[in-house]
Design brief:
CATH topology of the largest domain: Translation Initiation Factor IF3
Largest sheet: 5 strands, mixed
Helix content: 25-40%
């Protein structure tokens, strides 16, 4: 049957130089430009030449022609072994992640944190851990909040649970003065980020425990508040 409504051309040019499954740089026959600037296998500058001539030189040495700078004109290519090139790039990436692991980012909470603010801080924590940074969770008490330290520990422990896919706690949360703190180290590899709705509904309450609680101070008393806005007298 003939399609009465044929699709209109999108006007986008297809990139025949790169497979959609290939996320690495273009190499060999996938380099479609007429000429390139070539760097030899020993690092020497070979100058600008026709792409077919550069490819012939690479093959004569049993190596690959790899595009290392595609945005300049003409593109810069190196004559290298692609397997070794890929290994060096992965090693460099792991080295960068290890250097980030020695750096620490911090996320601060309050005992009376609300759902929206809590989810925002958890997203920041996920981003820091996925980038390879160590993460410090800090919660500070003010005034009469110190009378209900268990509520602060609930916040920090829940945060550790919501970040467990991205990092592992180095130790249990500790209280020093008016501050509860915990350190989280990133996991190897990148975990899937959960949506704010999953953080709220799933969180660290797999057994149907009641919502996290915080504190609100008034002139006459201290009120206990759930994360969902309801207030209860202490």
């Amino acid at each position: 049957m003939v399609n009465a409504f044929p699709k209109k051309p999108s006007g986008k040019k297809k990139d025949f130089g790169r497979s959609r499954f290939d996320r690495g740089p273009r190499r060999n026959e996938r380099i479609r430009v007429p000429e390139v600037r070539v760097i030899g296998s020993d690092g020497a500058q070979l100058g600008v030449m026709a792409t077919r001539d550069a490819l012939a030189q690479a093959r004569a040495l049993g190596l690959d022609l790899i595009e290392v700078a595609a945005t300049v004109n003409p593109p810069v290519c190196r004559i290298l072994d692609y397997g070794k090139f890929k290994y060096d790039e992965e090693k460099k990436s792991k080295g960068q992640q290890k250097s980030n692991a020695s750096k620490t980012k911090e996320v601060k909470f309050r005992p009376s944190v609300d759902v929206g603010d809590y989810n925002t801080k958890i997203r920041h924590g996920q981003e820091f851990l996925s980038q390879g940074f160590k993460l410090k969770l800090t919660l500070m008490f003010r005034g009469r909040e110190m009378a209900h330290q268990e509520l602060g520990f609930q916040v920090v422990e829940r945060a550790i649970g919501d970040l467990r896919e991205f990092g592992t706690a180095d130790s249990s949360p500790r209280l020093a003065g008016r501050t509860i703190s915990a350190m989280i180290s990133p996991r190897i590899g990148k975990a899937k980020k959960r949506s704010p709705a999953e953080v709220v509904s799933g969180g660290s309450e797999p057994n149907g425990e009641r919502p996290l609680r915080g504190l609100v101070e008034t002139k006459n008393s201290v009120l206990e508040t759930s994360s969902f806005g309801s207030l209860l007298s202490i």
